[in-house]
Design a protein that fits this description.
Blueprint: H1 3-24, H2 45-88
Helix pairs in contact: 1-2
């Protein structure tokens, strides 16, 4: 498996984990932390730690995802530049493309009404 393929698999896994962590959270305070009995102003130790863990894991996964995307871009650029320079360097001959020649035996004439004969 290529380096880019490994990065691609890691990006998909981290993106899936990030979606799961975000879906567990609730912006109104009714996510995973409220299901453990945490009230509005009254927070137990475990509930507060769950909220902190979800917040830190969201930022960590987002950072890891960004770094993996940047690293995968570097691997694409390094492998793509070698192929591009080989082609530009003249190792391969380019064949000229010829334009099709129109057939002069059947000319199309137009009437004054715009119809073809």
């Amino acid at each position: 498996m290529s380096t880019f393929g490994i990065f691609l698999v890691l990006i998909v896994i981290v993106a899936f984990l990030l979606v799961v962590v975000i879906m567990v959270q609730n912006p109104k305070g009714g996510g995973l932390s409220s299901s453990f009995g945490g009230g509005g102003g009254q927070q137990m130790g475990g509930v507060k730690k769950t909220t902190d863990f979800l917040d830190k894991s969201t930022w960590t996964l987002a950072t890891v995802l960004l770094v993996l995307i940047l690293l995968s871009n570097v691997t694409i650029m390094s492998t793509g530049s070698a192929e591009e320079s080989r082609i530009i360097g003249g190792d391969q001959e380019a064949t000229p493309i010829e334009a099709p020649v129109p057939n002069p035996t059947t000319p199309a004439t137009e009437n004054t009404t715009g119809e073809q004969n």
